[in-house]
Structures are given as structure tokens and as C-alpha cells.
Specification:
Blueprint: E1 11-19, E2 23-27, E3 31-35, E4 38-46, H1 51-60, H2 70-75, E5 80-89, H3 95-104, E6 108-110, E7 126-129, H4 133-146, E8 152-155
Length: 160
């Protein structure tokens, strides 16, 4: 797990976090959803100002003035612990391709229709990991390779 020297790089990412206790939570247009404890991955992209680092720092901030994305409803919860970011630099809009590959991955199961994907054709951008964290990260790194991207894996603490 290297240092994430991405500064303002634009690209695509999978934000990996742990839900420490089962949650029943209202998430924007999705309404009330049940999120069991476990390890999750959230697909996102940041091609605007500030790039991936700024976007992920926004996601992990507990006190937000405004909840912009579905993931923000989750990350404000005290029972959500940010762990890793798997990132690749790209200017392409490939969240849909990434979610299709995550659907096929052994360790990942899609979770909550429409989560984070209301502006895309993807079923969801939220995935529940059924393996250990290292195996789940390896799956994502391999998916990025399949998409012709070089993955950078970083501990969330290296972002701050």
C-alpha cells in the first residue's frame, strides 16, 4: 500500500470502507435502506477541480455542510470507518465499465440498486465484499488492469 501522491489527479476510484454495525439509514432519493456490517467498496470518479483526493477527502469528512452523493449519507455515520482508496488516473468516463467488472468479480456482490449510480446505467456503485480486505483489493487492482488502467492502492490515512 503506497503513499497516494495524486495531488489533483483526475480519475476513477473505489473507496473501501467498513460498516462496524448494522445500519438502517435514510439515503436521499433511495429512502430507508439496510446496510449490514461488513466491508464495502464504492465506485466513484472525479474529473473536476481538485480531482480524486479532494473528492475522497470530502467523502470521509464526518461533518458535511451538504450531502451531495449517496455515499455521503453513509460516511457521516460514526459506524463507518474509511480504510483504502484504489485509484487510477484517467479522463475517460468508465464507471459503468468498472461496475460491470465488479459484478463479475468473485469477492464483490452488488448492493442497493441505484446507489451512487442514478446518473449512470450501472445497477449500483456500492459493493459488499465477501472475502478478506486484501483479496478484495486484489480483485479491484486486477479489474483496473482489465480496463487498461494502473491502480494505486492507498491507505486513507495517507490522504490526510
Amino acid at each position: 500500500m503506497g503513499n497516494m501522491n495524486i495531488v489533483n489527479a483526475k480519475g476513477i476510484y473505489v473507496f473501501i470502507f467498513r460498516v462496524l454495525n448494522d445500519l438502517n439509514i435514510s439515503i436521499g432519493s433511495l429512502g430507508m435502506v439496510y446496510i449490514p456490517q461488513g466491508l464495502y467498496g464504492y465506485i466513484g470518479s472525479a474529473r473536476g477541480f481538485g480531482g480524486v483526493k479532494a473528492r475522497v477527502l470530502h467523502h470521509i469528512k464526518k461533518n458535511k455542510k451538504r450531502l451531495w452523493w449517496h455515499i455521503d449519507y453513509l460516511t457521516t455515520m460514526p459506524d463507518v470507518a474509511p480504510l483504502y482508496i484504489v485509484f487510477a488516473e484517467t479522463v475517460k468516463d468508465i464507471e459503468y465499465s468498472l461496475s460491470q467488472q465488479m459484478d463479475l468479480a468473485y469477492c464483490w456482490n452488488r448492493y442497493i440498486k441505484g446507489f451512487g449510480s442514478s446518473d449512470k446505467d450501472s445497477y449500483t456503485h456500492l459493493y459488499l465484499c465477501k472475502c478478506n480486505v486484501d483479496r478484495c483489493i486484489t480483485d479491484i487492482v486486477n479489474i483496473f488492469k482489465t480496463l487498461g488502467l494502473v491502480a494505486i492502492v492507498s491507505n486513507i490515512d495517507d490522504l490526510k
